[in-house]
Design goal:
455 residues, mainly alpha, Hydantoin permease, two-stranded antiparallel ribbon, 2 strands, 1% strand, Sodium-dependent transporter, Na/ntran_symport, transmembrane helix
Length: 455
C-alpha cells in the first residue's frame, strides 16, 4: 500500500514552496473564527479562562487532527473524497467522510459568505470614512446593512465574485499568490492595531480580562464553544486541508508545517484579543456584546480616538483579507472534488459553484430582513445553519476522521507519511497515535454529548 501513492499526477496543481503551503493553510485557518467569533465568544465566556482552554484544545486536539488531514492528503495526493477511497479501497463507505466534508463546506459557505458580504460593505464604508461618521450610529448602521435586502445581497455577490476570481486561477496562480499578498499584510495591520490598542488609557483592564484566567464563568457550553473554536480556528473536520495538503511535495515536513500553522493561528487569536479587548475596556464598553462586537461596539470605540477612521479602516481590511483567505479553502475542497471527475474545467466549475453558493446563501442573507420570521428550533436560518455546521457537523467530522486514522488507515502508511521529510522519530509518532486513539475521540465525544444534553 505504501508504494501506491508515490507517483503524483502531472496534471495536478502543486504549491510552489513550503512557505506557500503554510501561508495558504494558515489563511484557511485564520478567518471568521479567529477575528470575529473568538473575541465575542471569549467576551461571553469570561475572558482569559476561555482563551486558555481554547489554546489547550488547539494543541491537544486541533494539532493532531490537522496532522491527520495532512497525512491523508499528502499521502494520497488526492482531494478529500478520493483520499479516503485510496486509503481504504476495500471499505468504500468511508469516502462519505470526504463527501460530508464537501457538504459541510458548502453549508458553511451559505452563511460564511453572508458575513463576508457584510465585511465587504463595511470595508468599503470604512475606507470612505463613513462607518464612524457622526451622522451614523454604529448600531443603526449595522441594523440597516443586515436588514436591507439589496445591500446584503450586494455584499454577498461581491464576496462570492472575489472567491470565484481567485479559485478559478488555480493553486499557484490563485490561492497561493493571494495568500502570499494578504497574509503578511494581515500581520502588519494587526501589529499596528495592537500597538494602538494597548497604549490607550485604561487598556490594561482589557489585557487583564483577556489573559488572566477566571474559571468562575466557565460552563459546559463554554467548553464546547472552546472545542468548536479550535476546530473552526484550524479549519479541521471538513477535510479542507486534506485537499490543500494533496498539492504538497513529499519532502516537506508535516509536523513542522502543522506546528507553524497552529502557531500562526494561536498568534492571530492572541493578537485579535489584544487588538479588541483593550479598546473595549478603554472606552467602558461591553465585552460580551455577541456577534455585533466588531460591527457595533468597535466602531463606537474607534470614533472616540484620534485617527479612528484610519485604524477602523485598517481593521476592516484586515478582517476582509482574513475572511477571504479562509473561504478560499472552502471553495477549493468542493472544486477539487468535482475536478477529479474531469468533466469540467476549473474556471467553468468555479463559476458554476459561485452561482450555486450565491443562490443557496440568499435565505441566510435575508434572515435579518425578509425572512426574519422564518425559524428552525427557535433559530433564524442563518443561526440554524451556523449551529448545524459548527456544533454538530464539525465535531462529528473530526470524530470520524480520528476513528479512520486510528482504526481504518494502514498504520505503516500513516507513520511513514507523518515522519517523511521530518527529523521526528518514533516517540513523536507514538504520542500522535496515543492522542488519536484515546484523547481526541474521548474529548470530542464528551463535549458533543454534553452539548446534545443541553439542547
Amino acid at each position: 500500500m505504501l508504494e501506491e501513492f508515490e507517483e503524483m499526477s502531472e496534471k495536478k496543481g502543486q504549491w510552489s514552496s513550503k512557505l506557500g503551503f503554510i501561508l495558504a493553510s494558515a489563511g484557511a485557518a485564520i478567518g471568521l473564527g479567529a477575528i470575529w467569533k473568538l473575541p465575542y465568544v471569549t467576551g461571553q465566556s469570561g475572558g482569559g479562562a476561555f482563551f486558555l482552554i481554547f489554546v489547550l484544545f488547539t494543541l491537544l486536539i486541533g494539532l493532531p487532527m490537522l496532522l491527520s488531514e495532512y497525512v491523508l492528503g499528502r499521502g494520497t495526493q488526492s482531494e478529500a473524497v478520493t483520499a479516503y477511497k485510496k486509503v481504504a479501497p476495500t471499505k468504500p463507505g468511508w469516502a462519505w467522510i470526504g463527501r460530508m466534508g464537501v457538504l459541510g463546506c458548502f453549508l458553511l459557505l451559505t452563511f460564511y459568505s453572508v458575513v463576508g458580504g457584510w465585511i465587504f460593505i463595511y470595508s468599503g464604508l470604512g475606507v470612505a470614512g463613513t462607518v464612524i461618521d457622526p451622522a451614523n450610529n454604529p448600531s443603526e448602521l449595522f441594523g440597516k446593512i443586515i436588514g436591507t435586502p439589496w445591500i446584503t445581497l450586494l455584499g454577498l455577490g461581491l464576496f462570492t465574485l472575489a472567491n470565484v476570481l481567485v479559485i478559478s486561477l488555480g493553486v499557484q496562480n490563485g490561492i497561493e499568490k493571494a495568500n502570499k499578498f494578504m497574509m503578511p499584510l494581515l500581520f502588519i495591520m494587526f501589529i499596528v492595531l495592537v500597538v494602538r490598542a494597548v497604549t490607550l488609557d485604561g487598556a490594561m483592564e482589557g489585557v487583564k480580562f483577556f489573559l488572566w484566567p477566571d474559571f468562575s464563568n466557565i460552563t459546559g457550553k463554554a467548553i464546547l464553544e472552546a472545542l468548536g473554536q479550535s476546530f473552526f480556528g484550524l479549519a479541521v473536520g471538513f477535510s479542507c486541508l486534506v485537499t490543500y495538503s494533496s498539492y504538497l511535495k513529499k519532502d516537506v515536513s508535516l509536523p513542522n508545517s502543522a506546528g507553524s500553522v497552529v502557531l500562526l493561528t494561536v498568534l492571530v487569536s492572541f493578537l485579535a484579543g489584544l487588538a479588541i479587548f483593550p479598546v473595549v475596556f478603554a472606552f467602558d464598553l461591553e465585552p460580551a456584546s455577541g456577534p455585533g462586537l466588531l460591527f457595533m461596539v468597535l466602531p463606537t470605540a474607534f470614533s472616540q480616538m484620534p485617527f479612528g477612521e484610519v485604524f477602523l479602516a485598517l481593521f476592516l481590511l484586515l478582517f476582509l483579507f482574513a475572511t477571504l483567505t479562509s473561504s478560499f479553502s472552502l471553495y477549493e475542497i468542493i472544486v477539487a472534488a468535482f475536478i477529479e471527475k474531469g468533466r469540467m474545467s476549473r474556471s467553468a466549475l468555479t463559476l458554476l459553484l459561485g452561482i450555486v453558493v450565491f443562490i443557496a446563501a440568499i435565505p441566510a442573507a435575508l434572515s435579518s430582513s425578509t425572512l426574519a420570521d422564518v425559524s428552525f428550533f427557535g433559530k433564524t436560518i442563518f443561526d440554524a445553519t451556523d449551529f448545524l455546521v459548527s456544533n454538530l457537523m464539525l465535531p462529528l467530522g473530526n470524530l470520524l476522521i480520528a476513528f479512520f486514522i486510528a482504526h481504518i488507515a494502514d498504520k505503516e502508511f500513516v507513520k511513514k507519511e507523518l515522519l517523511m521529510g521530518s527529523q521526528m522519530g518514533q516517540g513523536y509518532y507514538s504520542t500522535y497515535r496515543l492522542l488519536m486513539l484515546i484523547v481526541v475521540p474521548i474529548v470530542i465525544l464528551v463535549v458533543l454529548l454534553n452539548m446534545l444534553l443541553q439542547y
